[in-house]
Amino acid sequence: MRKLKIIALLFLCILMASCEYSPLGENFIERATPDTNIPVLITLNDVNPADTIYVYQTTQVNVNIKSTKGLLNADVKLNDQYYAYMNSNSTSFNLNPDVLKDGVYKLTVNASFTSGTGSLAEQMGMEGYTGGLSWTVRVIGHPENYFKADYRLNKDGYMEYYWYNKVPASCIDHYVIHSGLSMPADTAITDPTKTSFIDYGYECGYVYCQITTYLKGGFNYSQYISVTKPTPKVYAEYVDLDHYRVYWERSFANARYKLTAGGNVIATDVSDTSYLVSQIFGPYHSINVEVRPRNKAYDNYHNKYTAYTTYFLGTSLGLGNWPLFAYNKKDNILYSTTYGSLVAINATTMKQINYISIVGHPWGLAYGGKLATAPHNSTVLAMTGEETWIYTDSYFNNPLLISPLKGNVNTHLSALTSDDRFFVVPNGTSTCNVYSSITGTKLFDIPFTYNTIYTFPEFVGVSENGQYFWAASENGIEVFEVKGTTTQLLYTDTRYYKGAISVPSHPDQIICRVGEAIEHRHLPDFSLIQSLDVTTYGAVLCNVDPVTLNFLYHQNDSLRVCNVTDLSKTIFKVRSDERTCKLYNNKLLTYGLGPTYIDISSYTK
Amino acid sequence: MLVQAYITHMKKILTLLLLSLRICMYAQGYTAEYAIGYGNYQLNDIKSIQKSMVGNYGLKITDCFPGYYTHTVTIGYLNDKNQYGGQFSYLTTGGKLSVADYSGAYNVEMYMNGYRIGGFYRNLIPTGYDPIRFYLQVGSGIMFSNMRMNERMTIYSESQASSVILKGGGYYIEPSLGFTFRLLKCCNVSVGGGYEIDIPGKMFYGEQKTDVSANWSGVRVYGGVTILLPENIFGR
Description:
The complex is a heterodimer. Chain A is mainly β.
């Protein structure tokens, strides 16, 4: 009984312990279940997912996610590797080609959104929406560093730019060629497979070209090419007395040429580089070759180049313009002037052997005129703008000064005679003043009647020995014989004279241009030795070479040389417009711009 | 759910059984008493823990440590007007936080159990009507507390559960008063009430001491049956 009670007591305790309180209550919240799908907008640099993203250099990528539901998280994967994480609706990250190897990648943006229901599952992150979008990314690191461009001459002779791109053509959108100096406008090449461009506007000179590659995606880079090719040089060479050849180098690329020589257009729009040009003795020919693109459509201010040269027949004397000439047969010295100096030249070698500056106040020899040499000794005389200087020889020491006896190019006569006299007829006068070439004193005057109105060619002259003096004009001629300090009129007529010159070494002969002929006459009787009819073309007397007695005159368009013994036989002829040429020791000398000479000895043998 | 309903049903049966128990009573001798009562519990710290969880995932308090039945067993000695002996009480209550929707449920159930072991002294005072006596009583001893918090989250087909247990001890003292009624010679019934004052200690989470204490202080009311066992049944 007692045990039974104890067991009952223990059982009671166990029952009490089993009466544990059970908490009550339920809090069920009615919530709408989420929709199956929600609209989500994921943008990545506004690139359509169907397009490829090209990464050529470090590129910032902006990702934006828009949805009606809250964004839980998002991540960016590149080829299934996490690349960036997003904690908000937008993020930016860089795609760096220095880090990424060249190749094609798949860039995926995955995003998770809340369901928006507020449910327990949503709060626990076990309910929501997930989705993603992928783009194709093509990485080509720094293609600008591998863009090379250069130029070459193509098989057709045009300059061609060519280039190399590391980027395949499929990634290239277009090219733009900018060559401002040779092309009228920029050229866009939309065929990405092309790797060259012909510049039809370039032929030579300087040009620069900017070649820009525009890649898909907008990235672009350029290469600059600078080309400098010389303007072709032009040359001229002697062919014969009537012709010279002009030739020039070809330009680097095809061009068309325009040749101008002596102010005349010889050839236009030609591709030849050699032309035969008619020449005349005398002035320098200015020659230029204008180089332009072969195709006129590409002409502009910049791609026009001109090559210059000059040409003249003969050899330059290296003197200033408008030189005076006199020849001393005894010393075989040719005297000339250059600016204010008197120059002595070896008449064989034509090398200058001495010179002296004769200054004046203010003109000096610079604007003086008339040189004269004595036929019997080395005396040489120069008339300046202020006075007359007489030197005993080509050393030009201790000159005798006759002042104020001045002369210029219009002085009719300035001649030394073998009797040491100096005959001078100033322009505009009808008197010949005769001086002693030794003392400089005036000896006497020779008045005459027929004073010419012309200063060219020689109308007034004196024989080498000073025995005969003549004055011709368009009104007639007077020939005097000089005896001591007196004169006697030997002959006169009233024909129309166009010049009268002496014959060296033959003081008893005179050559006149009168009427329609050249008359070679004998003195003192003025009898006719020979005559040359010049009715058709006329003639202008120049001089008789003291060495060869060859007579130089100008007729029509040429200088002609014949021996004084036979005027009818022309032994040398050269085209020239020069009418004031001189012939000394077989050297045919010009007067005017850039004096030159031709040694005609080889033609007169 | 089925188990919970079963336990609730058993509690009702047990209560009726004890109230209708007929046991002989003696005027002097050993006593064994079972008292069922009702008490409310301060348990401020525990309630604070529960409140701190409100709002998590939408949790709301659906049950907050209400007053509940107490069970007390005493074994003592009755000598005319004095009764004293040992005492064991079981106190239980609980709290619950809950939220549920179409996607699942989240429940946090907090089971709070207290075990008092101590002594008591009861002074019986005649009322003039012999079967009924007024008594004054004071009890004191050690209070052991156990708080078990079960967390269960069910989302769709997946669920996860965890449990945390806090244990602690303390002291209590409970003055009370009441009446006894001699029902039989060896059986008294009594009703009374008092107020339990706890001096709780801090609870432990495993070996780790927490700032939480279980203060069971509160009003107590009892109704019990006392069985008197004559001294000679223990060998006199």
